[in-house]
Amino acid sequence: MLVSIPFNSSLTMTALIQSIEFALHPGGGEDMCLCIEWEPGLLEILRGLDSGDEVFEVTTDGPD
Q1: How many structural domains does the chain have?
Q2: Residues near 25 by Cβ (< 8 Å), separated by ≥ 6?
Q3: Which of 7, 15, 50, 60 could join 11 via S-S bond, C-beta 3.0 to 4.6 A?
Q4: 30-43 per-position pLDDT tens digit
Q5: What is this structure's pTM?
């Protein structure tokens, strides 16, 4: 499966999902985590995005 990650209204990246995991918080609650393939340098870019409350499109197809 693939996930589309928008950087802005005109730039989107598509990444291959390797796995879906759940991160448990101390005291309860959890976050869903998409584990993706990444290239060197991409991690810093993704960490810079404020994506905690974003909804991302997951598909089985590549980008249009």
Answers
A1: 1
A2: 31
A3: 7
A4: 988 888 877 778 77
A5: 0.66
Domain range holding 24?
Answer: 2-51
> DSSP states of the chain as a string?
-EEEEEEETTEEEEEEEEEEEEEEPTTS-EEEEEEE---TTHHHHHHHS--TT---EEESS---
Q: Which of 54, 19, 58 is nearest to 36 (CA)?
A: 19
Count CB atoms within 10 A of the CB of residue 36: 17
Please measure the distance between the N-terminal and C-terminal CA atoms of the chain and give it in whole angstroms: 15
Distance, in Å, from the CA atom of 9 to the CA atom of 26, rounded to the nearest integer, reads 36
